[in-house]
Request: fold
Amino acid sequence: MNRSTSDPAPAKKPAHPPTYVEIDCTDAAPFPHSPTHGTEKETPPLFPNPTVLDEVLYDYLRRADKMGWSPYDLVDQENVKNLARPERLSETQLQAVQTVLYVEDHLPGYLSEYLEGLTHPDVPDEQYIVNRKALHYVFRWVGEEDRHAHVLEMYLKKTGLVTPAQLDADMLRERKTAYIFPYQHQVLEGFVYLALQEKATHLYYRALAKALDEPLLKAILTKMGADEASHGAFFYDLLIKCHKGDLDALARKVSAVSEDFKMPVQSNLTNYRRQLLSLMRSAPSYKHSDVFTDMMNAIEKAGQKYSRDSLTLISPELGPFDK
Ligand SMILES: [Fe+2]
Ligand SMILES: [Fe+2]
Reply:
């Protein structure tokens, strides 16, 4: 899921996409110096670090292979007839599910943003190679987000909760609001933002599933939540491994981005205050601050693990007990 700014004013497209910036990524392999007008100009490190990217890509893609599921299996005739209890949804809960669908359905907008940024030719060759590698993640990720929009659309139509014509019209209206990625020139902040956003959707779907008394919708939200957890894990792993030598710097960045973090796309929804209210009322156990706490906990845990690892190097008998 993604989001934009309030009252979506058309933002200017960046002249140069956010493909690489100066960041403090302690493991980053230095990009070779390239002469500029007779002087040596130091270029920023590659981001993400290619070795780290390979590692987290492997974990994410292998996980995604095993987690595959199809909307056609979940919302098949048998489940709609025997499992679904759409009459148990309140008006507010139905509105919340529709809002989740609109948010997930913004996918074509943000895919084109990422694609443009990661295929822009005006970057050093080494960064271009890393960007192509990053697309392995992007393509699977957006495939999974698309699955979320598709399964909810099928659910709402096949259970008769919304007529196909009405839902098509509603989705069209919401889809037409522009999606602008909020951190176009700040790659690291953009990655932190994506980590928080994926964690927010994971925690929200979990809370919504818990609050509903509709077995088929619970099953759908559980599958969606697992995908969001996997997306969150990709960004957590990437950021933490890139900051292995300076997790404090990462924690500071997470604090800064969290300051004005909002639920994905909440601001470019039509009547977004009303839609946001339905979202929150339908999942009372969701707490926005838990998203920030979850990421800080992951960083803290990584800090403990890395300090144990360095102890192990010096003195193997002090190694962690859990290995
Ligand atoms: Fe999603
Ligand atoms: Fe996601």
Observations:
- The two ends are 36 Å apart (CA to CA).
- The chain has one domain: 52-306.
- DSSP finds twelve helices and two strands in the chain.
